[in-house]
Each structure stands twice: as C-alpha cells, then as structure tokens.
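Anyone? Bumping this.
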Amino acid sequence: MRAWLWISTVAVLGCGGPVAFQGQSTLPVTGTPPPAVAEAKPPPRVEVRDNKIEIHDKIQFDYDQATIRPESSGLMNEIASVIHKNPQIKKLRIEGNASAEGSPQHNQKLSEDRARSVMKYLTEHGVAAGELVSIGHGADRPIADNASEAGREQNRRVEFVILEQDVTHKKVEVDAQTGVEKVVDENHEVVRAADADAGEQQAGKPGAKSPTAPATTARKKGG
Amino acid sequence: MTMTRMSTWLAAGVVASAAACAGTARAPEAYRDDTSKLLETRTAQLQQCYGDALKTDARLSGTVTVQFVVEPKTGAITQPSVDHGKSTAPPVLGDCVVKAVDGLTLAPPDRHEGRATFVYEFTPNPAPAS
C-alpha cells in the first residue's frame, strides 16, 4: 500500500503542476443595438390647410376679457411663425367667436375684441398689418351645442381664414427614361376667398367697427 | 529494503509517472493560444447575447475578466467565473461570457491543468437608422 502511494506521488510530481496563463489581448465583442426609435414628432399645433390656418389648440383669454393669457404666448408665436413661413398668404382674416352665454351684444363685442387682440399680437410679432383683418361673429357661428359647458367651451374660439393667397400652377413632364421632371409651364394666380370683402376691421385701425357689431359697448359677463 | 527491491519500485514509479503524463504537454504560450482559438468559436454566441442585452440598454459596454480551469486529460473548460474586481461591464455581460465559455473542450487535451484568465471587451456598434 505504501508502495503504491509512493508510485502515485512520483507519477504526479513527474507530470508537473497546473499551467497558469492569460489571454494575450482582449477579445473584442461587438453588438448591434436595436434601431433607435425616432421620437414621434407631435402633430403641429398650427398648420396651413387650404384656405385656413388651423390651430389644434386654443388661444386662452382672461375670463370675459380680450387679454391673451401668457400660457398662449407659445401658440401665438407659432401662429406668427407659420404666417412667416407661408409667404403665399397675402391676406388673413382673424375671426373671433363666442359662446351663447351672455347677451348677444356682449358676445359680439367680446368676439371682436378678442380677434382684434390676436391681430395686435401678430402685428407686434412681425406680421405685416396690411395682411390682417379681424372680425367678430359673436355667438352666430357655433360649432358645438351651447347647452353644455363643453360645447360652449368649443364655441369660444378664434379662427384664421386665408382671404388671399398666391397659387402656383406647374405643368410638369417626367422623362420616361431618366425619371427627371421638367417644368414645361408655370403660372401664378391670386386666389381670393368668396367672402374676402365681408365686414372686417383692418389692422392698425382699432376704431373701425364691424358692420355686424352692435353700437352698444355695455359689458356683461358672457361669451 | 534491499537494493534490488528498491530499484524495482523506482522503475514502477517511472512507468506510472510516464503513464500519468501521457498526452500533449503544451508550452504556456501554446496553451494560451489554443485556448484563445477555442474561445473564439463562441464569438457569434457572445454577439447574440450582447445584442439581446443591448435591446434593454443600448449603451451597455465594458470589459469582462473571466477565469476558468481547463481540465487535464479531458480538456473541458470548467469553473468559469467573472472577476468582478477587474471587470467594468454590467453583470449581464459577465453572464454572457460564463455561458459562452462553459462546456467548451480543448482538443487535444493537455496533460497539465490550465488556469486561464481572459478579458473580453464589449463595444456597441452605432445604432442602425430606423
């Protein structure tokens, strides 16, 4: 027994111990991350659509006043920016609308004042006064039911109607072989809205009255 | 113990030793290089594991220092473990390495046990455009 132990010891010692070693250099591993998901752009709050500048937000005014609230400054600046970026717009009508809450006279006045207030803001932010007119419709043009507060809130709004804009018509031929487009005919025309001459107030003439505006200046809560 | 008897036992010891030490005996550099080549066979698996990890965090990167034993006679890689003190990558990448190297077998096996240390470096490619 002792003999076999001795033989094993000789065998192990003769074979040597473990070999320690390290990699000569780092082993590179690369990986491809998943495609970066492009951040979804929020839909524009302000966009030109046919004969309108649509705002998917609301200009906020002080209660029963024509003062634009500070939180709407961003939206107002965006509207000014869109007008600047669309030089084809030659004339724009700012239309104030009120809910049926309150007297018709008061709502008429409030809607005119608010439209005028928006017009003033835009002219103070670089929009040419000659391009803007304003008008108040009072509660005459509801888009929702005035019986509910939600409906009345929808009815209190300001809209932007393009009265005149340059339109360019192009006739293009596409080369069947190269796919290159070639303009063979181009002409411009000024498109005017059918009611472009409806009663309105010109920017820079605050004293002007809408023909539909009542003579009274009595202020009651409403709009 | 007589002289004759002692000679007999010594001879038996030499024979036993020779039997125990049979097989390839690599120099340390050759042991390292052969093991390194063996590890490279799992590169694709590592890249797959890394790619999966990048899905949860596209910025994962760093080094993983792994230690393991190469069994004598069988060549099997066993006891893989991450040396966290010498690694900068998050544990999930250490797991990738351990899974990748475990079960590999060096062929031909070496008569000596190998005690290996390797360092992996994980680097993300630029994210492809969506």
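Late reply, but here is one note on the structure posted above: The longest strand of chain A covers residues 157-174.
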